[in-house]
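PROTEIN SPECIFICATION:
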Amino acid sequence: MRIIAGDFHGRRLKSPAGNRTRPTLSRVREALFNILAPHLLSARFLDLYAGAGTIGLEALSRGCSRAVFVEGDAHICRVLRDNVERLDPKGERAEVIQGDAVAVARRLGQRSERFHIIFLDPPYHRSETERWTMEKSLAGLLAPNGIAVLQHDRKWAAPEAWAGCRKYRSRDYGSTTLSFFQADPTGPRAGGEQS
C-alpha cells in the first residue's frame, strides 16, 4: 500500500500478514479524499477500526493537523504503530490507541476530544450491530459541522439520520459504499437523537 497524495505521496505502508484486515482500495480512498478535500486543511481526524492506518495517514498527508487511530487487534496495532512512526516519528500529529472502538470512542468523548472528520470501517460481518452500538458513542465527538464517513457493504442501506447527523451523500464502489453524514452546526445532541 502507498500514500496516494500530499506530503507523504508515494510512501509505502506495511500491511498486516494474513486476512485480518480489509484495506480500503486505492480507488475508494481516492474518491473518499476527493470528496473530503475542502474539509481537510487543519482538520482533526479520527480513524476508527484503523487497521494499518492507511486512511488516517492519507488524511495527515493531505493536510489534517492531527489524527487519532483506534485499532483493537494487538498484532495489527503493532503494524499500525510502525506505519505511524515512520511518517510521524516525533508523534506530533498522530496518536495510536489500542482498544475496542466503542469503548475508546466513549473515552475520547469523556476527555472532550472533538473531531472535524470521523472515518469508520467496522468489520462487515458484524457491522450492523457495531454501527448501532457506535452511534451513541459518537455523540459529542464531532465538532459542529463535522463529517462522519461510514464505509460499509453495499447490501446494507445506511439510514438517513445516524449519530446525531444527517446523511448528505452516498457513493457505491463495487461492493463497497461510502455514506457521508454531517453534524448539526449547533452541535450534536446526546445519544444521537434527532428532533
Remarks:
- Confidence is low (pLDDT under 50) at residues 187-195.
